[in-house]
Amino acid sequence: MTSDSESLLRYLDGEMAAPEAERFRARLAETPALRLKLLEMERVGDLVRLWARNAEGRSGELLEPTLSRVAEEEKRSVRLFSGAFAVALVLFALLPWSSSTKFLQPALALRAPLREPATTVGSAAIERIESGAQHATVFVVGRNATPVVWLSDDLEPGVSPGAPGPG
Amino acid sequence: MRKTTLVTLLAAALVVAVPGVADARPPSSSAPLTQSKPQAEPPHRHETLIEVSVLHATRDKKGKDSRIGEMPELNDAPFSSYDSYELLARNKLTLVKGGRRKLPLPNGRLLEARLEDVLPDTSVRLFASINRPGAADFLPLLEVRARRGQSFIVAGQSYKRGILVLVFKVLR
User: Fold this and answer.
1) I need a labelling partner for B45 at 20 to 30 A (CA). Which of A109, A111, B19, B35 fits?
2) Coil/strand/helix, residue B131
3) Is the whole-model pTM more than 0.80?
């Protein structure tokens, strides 16, 4: 900001003492560029004051959406914080040294069967096989390591799985 | 406001988690939880739903039946040695714990499936067998542990110049 602009602002805001204001008016009289600048600043000031008067009655309407957004954001932050804290609280309470584990276990045990697994991928497990007289080969295929039981059949020759592997 | 909330929540955490404080609570406050009557187990705890797809694998150069759907395992050896896969049947079997379901196979054998147990981690233990009535056992027993969405395959039975591929999938 130039010294002229600063002086103009102080003059318009009435911050100049009387002698200084008198000297500034003399300078305005003999400086057309400074006078023009004063007029521009007065026009801008008028526009701002006009907007402020018009906006005064609608201030709530203008400010409400912003305030609402701010309030909602604060509530969301509190909810997120509370949720995160609740999770931390449960984890903390489940630590082995916490006697509150005993307190929480019944509730968790009741809920456990109701929970669905987060993901369904993974592999089943062949735990036992009795193949009788047939030759059985057990291996896995695919990205989910799907177990396969391949049984040789005497009725017709099939393909031998050999040493299969993914891909 | 946030600091106040934080302090309040931290105080609550200490009451719940610190051993001494937790034990100092009146017995009546924890009694409803520790002595509450266990809820009835949901119905599906004693049953499961499996899908059995019966595929016919041949080398007839017919490609893969579109009804089979996504089954990337067929692209891997030894399944990839067959160039034709046809879906012969697809059955959904509801297995009740202790009960048996039988499914006739195209080659005259009989598939028998049984739900042996539902484990605490929601996985199921299934028993399967494939036999021909009046003939020697082909597959007397196959015990599998699987969870919802997991599959296992029994392949190799001869059928019409090819083999049968039985794909089991636990749906529920």
Assistant:
1) B35
2) strand
3) no
